[in-house]
Amino acid sequence: MPPPIGFVSTREDAAARVAYLFSETVLSVQPNLKAAPVVGFQHALDRMVHDNVRGIVAERGTLPSVYSVRYNADPFLTAVEELGKTTFLSITAASSTLSAAITHLAKLAKFPVVVHVSMSRDFADFSEITCLRHLGFTLIQSFSLREAQDLAIASHLLAIRTGKGVIHFFHQPEGEETPIPFEDFNQIDKIFDRNALVNRGTEGSRVANKVYWNGAADVVAEKPAMEEAAEEKANGKQANGNVDLTTVNYNTAGLFQATEAVFDLMRAAVGRTYKAFDYHGAGNAETALLILGSSAQNFITTIGHAGWGDIYSKVGVITVRVYRPWSAEKLLAVIPRSVKRLGVLEQVHRQTTKWGPVLLDVISSLNNDLSIAAAIPVVVGYQLGYLDSKTIHKALRGIIQNIQSETPIQNLLVGGRASHDVDPEYHLTQPELETAYSKMLYNIFGDRLSILNALDRDNTGIPQTITSNPEYGFGTYLAKEERKKELMSKLQVAINENAFTNQETNDLVSRWLLLNSEDSSKLSEVGAKVISKLESDRSEIASELLNDKALILGTSSWIIGSDAWSYDLGTSGVHNVIASGKNVNVLIIDSQPYTGRSAEDSSRRKKDIGLYAMNYSNSYVASIAVYSSYTQALQAFIEADKFTGPSIITAYLPYNEETDSALTVLQETKKAVDSGYWPLYRWDPRPDESGLPNFQLDSQALKKELKNFLERENHLSQVARRVPVFDENVAGSYGSKLRMQQRKKAKDAYSKLLEGLTGPPLTILFASDGGTAENLAKRLQRRAKGRGLGAVVMAMDDFPVEDLGAEENLVIVTSTAGQGEFPQNGRNFWDAVKSSADLDLTSVKYAVFGLGDSHYWPRKQDKVYYNKPSKDLYHRLEILGAKRMVELGLGNSQDPDGYQTAYPVWETELWKALGVDGIGAAVDEPPPLTNEDIKIQSNYLRGTLIEGLNDESTGAISASDSQVAKFHGAYLQDDRDIREQRKASGLEPAYFFMIRVRMPAGVSTPAQWLAIDQIADDKGNHTFKITTRGTFQLHGVIKKKLKPAIKAINVALLDTIAACGDANRNLLCAGVPYNNALHKELAAYARGISEHLLPTMTAYHEIWLTDDNDEKKLVAGNAVVDFEPLYGAAYLPRKLKIAIAVPPYNEVDIFAHDVGLIAIVDDGGKLTGFNVVAGGGMGTTHNDKTTYPRTGSILGYVKKEDVVVVCEKVMLVQRDNGDRKDRKHARLQYTIDYMGLDVFRQKVEELLGFKFEEARAFRFESNIDQFGWVKDERGLNHFTMFVENGRIEDTPEFRMKTGLREIALAMKAGAEFRLTGNQHVILSNIAEEDMPEVKRLLAEYKIDNLQYSGLRLSSSACVAFPTCGVAMAESERYLPIFISKLESYLEELGLRHDSVVMRMTGCPNGCTRPWLAEIAMVGKAYGVYNLMLGGGYVGQRLNKLYRSAVNEEQALQLLKPLFKRWALEREEGEHFGDFLIRAGVIKPTLDGKNFHDDIAEEDEE
Ligand SMILES: Cc1cc2nc3c(=O)[nH]c(=O)nc-3n(C[C@H](O)[C@H](O)[C@H](O)COP(=O)(O)O)c2cc1C
Ligand code: SF4
């Protein structure tokens, strides 16, 4: 019977009406009619819509909208989408729809959304509510029709005032209740002023935690509840008392306080009091029952009627109104002091954890107050089954008997399991602790759940050891996948042949097939329909297909295992699952209690599977703890199931024994989570809006490793930038590349492993920085396999030390790095071996070969560094009990054949020891690939660059392609600052490219400058460098951006051809700012020579300048073989560098290049020709005295018109005579010394057909730049500016890059930039009238500053760290600091303005020509340099080693007294280098060949 007009008679109607009034939009979720055949809220909503009832919060003039959405149409997703349009949203739903929507609900909780939930009518399952307890909603329960109306209003007020979600739930009894009038508007008006609503509307309604309510009094009342940050914001209240547009984030305590405040308001309006907990019963009760369930009222009534002597006369009942936030304080307050026993009755149908959620809440609450905890020693949990009023007595008696017994049973089921099952007997159903998680999975996925490594079902008969390993589960998955493929093709055939009798079946099956790759929950929805259609389809094929029901439904596939799997991660099946990328979920349960964990862990290093998986960037990863947050665990399971790809969930369940008490498990979990030892998080590798993987921290503290990982991930995406802003492309592309790459690697590693397991095992571990030891180890493996051994090889650090004891034969090959240190990829291994006391190697046989250099650190006291790692390891293994197979082998770079002198002897001994010396000597060993091979095989510099660039599996390209790429101007590098960190987390180095531009004579138009500036921003690391070859160099260009960058450079009418590689490099030419005509002519020669010696390289165009849709890739056509008339297919033995100088200035360092052209100008200032210098070169190798720098030798004079052909012929002689066997000796400098200068000159002259003339006289004054303004012969102005070490960048203090961009924009036609060989810039051709503007900009950006010390102005440094791959020490980042440390001292000596040429490099390759400086520091190891002194000021004389291997302090101590002597003793105009020689401090190096002679510090043997 319907209620009278103006009345409601069901709780659902009452709540629905309130929802309508307090919302702009109501979403009514239509229940699953099978589960709940009731219309629910809909009826009342329909009426209000029909009657055009105006709402309270809807904007004036609009009516609230009501939408109904079906329960299986992802209704809560609709709600999330609605947030973008609606501020005040409510949802009415049946409780059965909630748990599937948990991920959406997590979002809704942050907005003022109210969800009115009606529990299932007959036998409600309150776990549908308790599973939401960690989402952040306030959860309010109402117990009567009246209460439903009041608390519905309260819920909306609370949501509006806090900006957060509220769930209002109640049990709707069968049938009608006594009707009550509609809600009273007068009462509502008393407590709710709709004019106080703020900040609503479309804009910003997506902002979480916003303030929507401007009831100033309330805000003040709640102020203590706000979190600090919010408080600060709230302080931004405006003078009129309005809160300014802001957000407030309530913490739990604050939310609870706000809830109570709203209850207070309700009392003021309606006169009824509501509290978080109610107690019913005697004040002297000794037993209290806290009940969450639909029969609570029955219990209260029964107890209320108890007489004296009844077993439950001293029993009280507690009900929960505010379930979240849970207030321990309020709960304890309602329990009478007399209570000694507390029963907790929970109506949860599917109890997954051993203890019910409310019991856990109660236990932790009691623990809050130890005096109360002591007073109530007995706390017993019960599962509340179905009870009706008739059986309640019996049930109550059972409950009390149990709780009063000596040893009460936990977890008794009281009542029937279903509504028809009214048997009041109680059952013992105690879920095992262990099964908590698998039960949860079953509850979530039901029939869809497939536990791949389950022991039951068809797996019987297979030993447990197999089924309990992940490989087994993975195998099952693969088999299943095969079967699914078969099924799909069957279905496809059936559709094609129209085999179904019913067209609808056909349609559904097609839909199912289309869906297939999508998430499994959707699949199951459609799958269920397919099955029901198939069942009614009478075709033959249909009944056949029904055999595969499970496959059609789509499964959620899980492998469940223990943390034991994390000990051998690298080789375990977990690793295979991750690497496979398959849609398999892995659940790993860690049961080790937090307390006492370290004792057990010390010997075995357990790896963090979650972190490991995150590094792969292809897996969903979560860390959960069911006794900390059930909801979070639930969310993780649902998300893992939805994620297409591997999911790895690590789950915490700490216990020592099954009988551990609830409190112990709770406390252990709490400690682990709170300390950050077991953080709760969820990680979705798919990038979110910010381009980063989605990381959701669900607990407070994070352990260090995880924090580091996350910080690194941030860093990673910023690698290519100096300004810390996220770059989506960088982050995104790294993710996908890594994923692919890791997969490939994992597979390779695995197959290699299998391949190797044939003969007796031999494990070869190497540590190597430069690759020598690595190559040797790999060669050893090949040779071992040739002898039938099952040999595997890997870097030391990739080997789990804890497995070392299981090895049979172990061989270590390690080189020596730093000062007697292990190379980078052996350090962790060594640390572990060194420090683990209980590593038992008694069954291991071992051999060690070391590579070192006995002269690397020549001083006597440094002899200990020689081959130190191999020696240390050799002894350590012995101490750990390993049996030596052969004596330690020591390879020494100083031996006649380097390490190859000692190695063969050692290897022969090794074969003997292994008993394979007689076997298969003829090992087929490919000769090592040399640079010469690479060039020749590259098909005119194509290599496999195109394929390499398209390979997204790695940020790098192959080693041989890297050689080829150099000819194209691109150089593979990585960020060495983070190399180690990345390695530690299993990532490849952060690869990127350096690009060098070919720009003969270093002349750049303003437009070209702007283009480079832009490319650095868009595609590089936001800086660029002026190089010592007077050109631009860009850094940090990731592979994906390489082609666009090179294209853009070409668009700017520049290119990168042969900017690196074995060909003629960029033509360096003096800047000559004072003589325009001369500069013009020289620059034209520079361009002419460059063009003439340019490789034709059609590959360049093909690779970089084509579009993706260019049909023909090979410009010359596949059939036509390229032709390099000057170079041939092998190009030059090494690079060739040519420079042009104009006396009296030698800023290009003319004697440092393979070919130097000294311009000879007649008295009229006209260029006549050049003195040609050849054989200069700076590249050397530390401690290899066959290498040395060399100053160029003068060949003679040629007329200017012959200069191009002269360069060509010099190059050809070098091409045909240079050493192609040993790259260290391949430069022209060695060719000339080897041939003799005269023979060389003669060969060139033969090719020329004429002879060099006698060299003309010339004189150099300096080899530094002439800074400042100068006017040329036409009256145009030129400004040489100081660019420290050539780096163009913006720093907060000095915005040089911006300044120069402004200037480039302001420059008029004809003006240009000239880049100098000392890495500085000349602003050229500035007309008089443009001077004010240029000067203004120079001043504004402080670029005109030349007030530096003479030392700084004369200094230069190469790039070195972090990008140069061969750098041994810092250079560009360090020289400025080092100079600062000298400057104040120089000032004291009065030497501030004296020019001293000082150069630094990170290695002996000599990029900034250190060997010609008066002072040089050449990197030897990190923080250690060789100090060179005595170079000639004008670049005419090499310096010499003064002290090897000095650190900063030593260098300063050595230099200071020498400066002092110079200041006191120098002759007029005498330069520092010359003085040191005159004073006998250092011997002059007059010829490269004497570079290593007469050094002040001899080897102390
Ligand atoms: C930066 C650096 C530091 C070195 N320090 C030592 C040393 O302290 N003791 C030693 O015996 N050899 C030292 N060497 C020599 C190397 O061990 C030797 O060159 C070896 O062949 C390099 O092998 P790799 O390419 O596998 O790294 C050093 C080499 C370099 C480049
Ligand atoms: S000198 Fe060495 S460290 Fe410096 S940039 Fe050149 S190769 Fe790198």
Would you write up a description of this structure?
- This protein has 1501 residues and is of the alpha/beta class.
- It contains 50 helices and 49 strands.
- The strands form nine sheets. The protein has a seven-stranded mixed beta sheet, with helices on both faces. The chain has a seven-stranded mixed beta sheet with strand order 9-11-10-13-14-15-16, with helices on both faces. A seven-stranded mixed beta sheet has the order 17-18-19-21-20-22-23, sandwiched between helices.
- The longest helix is centred in the middle third of the chain and has 29 residues, at 728-756.
- The radius of gyration is 41 Å and the shape is elongated.
- Mean pLDDT is 84; it is low at 216-245, 422-430, 457-463, 599-604, 713-744, 750-757 and 1110-1120.
- Bound molecules: flavin mononucleotide and iron/sulfur cluster.
- Flavin mononucleotide binds next to helix 30 and strand 27.
